């Protein structure tokens, strides 16, 4: 399907999720990062990246991704996504911890 529609954001997101499920976090994070750079950015990619980075213990990177995602979600008026990412960010604690 992706070969037929290489620009399909949801298909690309789904592929990134499959890489994560198969234990390939670098491949997953790489594809999610591409989606965060789309115009407009694909907001769910920020949240999933933040979750994966946190799970990998890459907390500083997770916080940065979530902050960027909150900004993107607010710009797109997606307050639900902004709220979810804010909750995850708060659960990661302050930057100095």
Automatic annotation (TrEMBL):
InterPro entries: TPR-like_helical_dom_sf (IPR011990)
Family matches, as Pfam families: TPR_19
Stored Gene3D superfamilies: Tetratricopeptide repeat domain (1.25.40.10)
Protein name: Uncharacterized protein
Species of provenance: Pirellulimonas nuda
